[in-house]
Q: What sequence folds into this?
């Protein structure tokens, strides 16, 4: 018997549009939305930046895996957006697959830079060379996102309606 759930999970780099696409999809498909960053912030009672700052990245990564485990026990028929680094842990791949259809919102480094150049909420992109960090992280992560995904959607230069149409059609 197939025990996999019927969620749509959005993965991709910071700034690829997971949260915005997720909220809009949630309205369009009439399915509640969950976001791992928000769930972690709520559980911890502090922001992602505070968690990175006080506890370090590995602690945050453990929280992500715990959060994903809980979702595999509880979530169904939802739109779930996950933090950009969550698919990097190999053990999270099986959990993502168990949760449902994994959709990778693929964006180019220039697109991400344009969207996040003034952002202060992503600890991994602070410092003097955000574009260098985006490129380095993308190099590490692109193949992993592709491997974790069931469906890849290119988002550069597209409006949200067209991105959503593609997701709805390809997950139908
Ligand atoms: C991270 C992405 C962030 C957040 C944290 C780390 C990453 O989520 O989980 O800052 O490692 O790419 P978004 O992808 O929603 O920005």
A:
């Amino acid at each position: 018997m197939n025990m996999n759930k019927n969620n749509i999970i959005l993965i991709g780099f910071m700034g690829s549009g997971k949260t915005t696409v997720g909220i809009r999809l949630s309205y369009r498909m009439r399915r509640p939305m969950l976001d791992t960053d928000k769930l972690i912030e709520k559980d911890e009672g502090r922001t992602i930046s505070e968690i990175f700052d006080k506890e370090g990245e590995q602690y945050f990564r453990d929280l992500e895996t715990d959060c994903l485990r809980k979702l595999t026990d509880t979530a169904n028929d939802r739109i779930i957006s996950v933090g950009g680094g969550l698919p990097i842990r190999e053990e999270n791949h099986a959990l993502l697959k168990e949760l449902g259809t994994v959709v990778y919102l693929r964006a180019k480094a220039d697109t991400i830079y344009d969207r996040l150049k003034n952002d202060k909420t992503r600890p991994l992109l602070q410092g003097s060379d955000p574009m260098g960090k985006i490129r380095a992280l993308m190099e590490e992560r692109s193949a992993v996102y592709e491997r974790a995904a069931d469906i890849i959607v290119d988002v550069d230069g597209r409006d949200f309606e067209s991105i959503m149409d593609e997701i709805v059609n390809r997950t139908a």
About this structure: The chain has one domain: 7-167. The mean pLDDT is 95. The chain is about 55% helix and 15% strand.
